Batch of 4 targets.
Target 1
Amino acid sequence: MSSKTSEFPMSSSELNHPGTPYLQASYFRRLNWIDWLYAVALCAGVAFAFHRYADYMDVYEKAILVLSAPTFAWLGWHWKPVRWVMALLAVLSLYGIHLYDGQLARAEQVFFLKYFLSSQSAILWMSALFGFATLFYWIGLAARAESGYSIASKFCWAGVVLGFTGMLVRWYESYLVGVDVGHIPISNLYEVFILFCLITALFYLYYEQRYATRALGPFVMLIVSAAVGFLLWYMVTRDAHQIQPLVPALQSWWMKIHVPANFIGYGTFALAAMVGCAYLLKQKGILANRLPSLELLDDVMYKSIAVGFAFFTIATILGALWAAEAWGGYWSWDPKETWALIVWLNYAAWLHMRLMKGLRGVVSAWWAVVGLLVTTFAFLGVNMFLSGLHSYGEL
């Protein structure tokens, strides 16, 4: 995206006040007919969703649906691939819903559902595609082969599309299990691991295009593949893919905004840690001529942590509000809450040292890597070794 703010001359006062009507007008003037067509299509999709599914939504869900149109319009205007991803998700998920014809049993009877579009099939495809993407990213790095990188990137995009399709179809499937069972699929460890994989991969793909380098793919996709490995183990050993009713504490609209915000934080923190690994290798002269510059790696680390910290802060505030509604208090020093605070303090300190003290280099990279260990324990370790009010996430 060009750094040029306008093709028209501006006065110094206008430059000093980027919120002026002039700049706002020039921003919209730069949009072409495809941009507006995309926005209109999103509004039409929201209208269709209201017409078809309004009876299943409360007032908060309707508000989220309305706000999704301008949010995704803005994303699509600033990052063009969002457009075709949204279009593919609409086509695939609606076709999958159509094939069900209101009967969950058709998941085993209809070919395209059984092998491609049921939630479980789509998520298995996502897992395989992310695995192939990781393999080809490493082939591209080892052989300096742009063709390997290109194939890997396509696999990664395909995995994102199939993963989100699986999540959307799973949302519909939960209502086929029972109207009182239906819920957004971000309620248990199985579902949030899928969300983690998708968010991490999607943020990586953004940075891949933003910085015009695919050399970070081998590192970032390693953490995604590790999450996929855990997901498959968890599915096989615990039958975790089965849709279960929500426990009372999760029967709240807060879940729909708290959990995604939380996992944007987790995903970007993980991405920063893997970029930190690449930084440390390059600094030691390992793969030095295959990796981007140290300055670029440092910038990706910083921006990933900054984005993650912002969303993690929002998620923590939302979690406190949710806790007050569910348990009668904003904070109870539950193990999950305590470790979330530790994660927040860790990255707050990282950003403070970066912005106030100019922290750079090896120390910054090691801190990002160690931060992943802290985040992993808060995300997974608490569920494995500790108990508390968040017991619905236990292994």
Target 2
Amino acid sequence: MSMIQVEELIKQYDKAKTPAVKGVSFAVNEGEFFAFLGPNGAGKTTTISILTTTLAKTSGIVTIAGYDVEKEAEQVREKVGIIFQKPSLDLQLSAEENIRFHACLYGMYSYRPTFSFMPKEYKNRVMELAEIVGIGDAIFKPVKKMSGGMQRKLEIIRSLMHTPAVLFLDEPTQGLDAVSRRSLWEYINNVRKEHGTTVFLTTHYIDEAENVDKVCIINQGQVARCCPPEEMKKSLMRKEIILDAEDQMGLASELSELGLFHKKDDVHIIVPYQDSTAQEIISRLKTKLTVLEIKEPSLEDAYVEYLNKTGGTAA
């Protein structure tokens, strides 16, 4: 079944001339890694806020794990974990106290006044997650004395404590260093494999969405495209072979004789291709090459090109 189902979702803010979300529809299957991308102001945050029960919709159908996000909000919250883009921590508490209150509110454990009184299972999980995201030494430190990056890591721990069926990641690695980013993604991928967790990602680091199962681009409040990354790259962009030779004019002439479209940048000759393989093209050339580079389009390349074509602004 679909773990997330959105049908004709509309959100009209008071006094706004047009809806922020205009009939958005998409589905996310159980265990799927789903990326929701779009420029600033496209409707991403509004949609996510509705999905996570923090904002009421104007109309449409939205369900998480079969539960209606408005009529059965409590059941939805039990199924989801959320890493918000904006911090939602109590700065007056320690890092561990923030986690403990969260875990107890979710009904995972009965509340105990100190960490030492909590069950062994709780203590082991907190310390395991703290080590994974890199704040093991600061887990009992007051949150107000932690850096922004450390607070981000704390929110990640809190969202993963109850092993949610659906994990919403709204800019999850913002403020994290490269090592912490890698550790987090390794852990999330392991969680997906072990528990079949559905992951819903929004990010400005488009490379983080390179290996998702499905990408959904929202632009100007509407779903512009929803498909696997490879399909998006194939439909929007061509692959390229970058070539050069001591006899550049001779190389260009040979390409023309072979009927291979090519163009020249400031230095090299570029041969776009789609249906053939790079090897098939190169094997036909007799001119001795001095430069040979095969350029595969990235998801970010395709995303930027799509927004440029549709009048959006990448962000």
Target 3
Amino acid sequence: MRTISATMFMTLDGVVQGLGRPDEDTRGGFPHGGWGPRYNDEVMGRELGQGMAQAGDLLFGRRTWQDFANVWGRAIDGNPFSALMNKATKYVVSTTLNDADGWENSIVLRGDAVETVAALKRTEGPDLAVNGSAALVRSLHGAGLIDDYTLLIHPLTLGAGTRLFEQPGPLSEFELISSVPTTKGVLIARYQRAEP
């Protein structure tokens, strides 16, 4: 059986919306897009690089897959993240996407997110990594399908925006596996689901 790891960039007040660019995700009139890049540093790059090197296949919700396909789906000279993502098998969970031809090595998982991902998790193959895709992560978390989290907790609050855990969810316990502070105050915390 595969494991599922989720990597989420978030603020102290739990906002995960619009990390990278002002126009990345303006749903609900979100005015704070692009809050994340000023916190990037060598420590974050190294830690994310180590995680990407261990990642197997990638798992996305439709919106994040479409955004990543536009940003990362073309070869970016010298960028190791682009090369890894383009090479990896990418599963996109969607009930509306007709095909995944827009990004090489992409496969659409049609139907209910929890059911299709649970079935994929039961198959043999590389472990699965989710980057972003907050709605998908919430659904998978609610079904107990997320095995571990890497949370990049940024030292700011936004007061508005989509939060990682907006709705009530099940009681879930995790163990802190590691924590690394960056030079710009981001805490990279890795949690693994605790054994019942």
Target 4
Amino acid sequence: MARVYLGPAGIPIGAKERKRSAGTIDGIRYVSEVGLNAMEVEFVQGVRMTREAAQEAGEVARELGVRLSVHAPYFINLCSEERDKVEASLTRLQESLDRGEAMGATVVVFHPAYYGKLGPEGCYNAVKDGVLRIIDWMKENDIKNVKLGLEVMARKSQFGGLEETFRLVKEINHPQVVAVIDWGHVFARNGGSIDYRAVLNMWREYFGDQPMHTHFTCVKYRKGEWVDEHEPIDTNNPPFEPLARELGSEDIEITIINESPLLEKDALKMKEMLLKYNNVLVGLH
């Protein structure tokens, strides 16, 4: 059975309904109250949290046993032809990592790049160079705990196929650089199919029993293709229950961040399915 950390991407719906100006700390408290044990702090539109606020959020999360992670801004492209855009991307990553370290987050997840004119091979090398620069910056700035997570992406124009992401992380071979699986992205990139067992086996092949950080949402079929538009999990594209079943036979630690529009409501449905197959939500009974 898997040891699972499960929660929403961002401030839960219920926290916002209860308090109009609900912030990260309110969200963490609400996550704990409803019986979940993880939350991803969303910096997707920019890093607007101070280091002091990040430290305070981290203290509350530790007190309540909620695992935090961070999603870096969307405006990152390490393969841009414009040098200033690459530098701005690196700065956004640095800011995200700084706040992630302050709050005790496990990982800062980011979307690495679009292939653009560099193509897959050139972009692979550019992403690698950017990540190596970030590793140097982390060492210089005493960022010792939070990890940098390269997310597997949905669009074939984006850097982030499953195999190339795994290969790059394995090649960089640094304890603070990890691959992040988005199960819905894998489904979309594969044209509407996913073999959970094959992905888990591939993880084992590359990373052994290293803990997994993952995202889950269903995606939409529009104009002849699967696109990364988030849907509630009841749409079953992809279905969650087969993943819960496969994890029931895995001796691994995994974080699952629900990115569906229903946030904690769908996360609680996921919890029921995970427990059905004897998975354990860490710290919850």
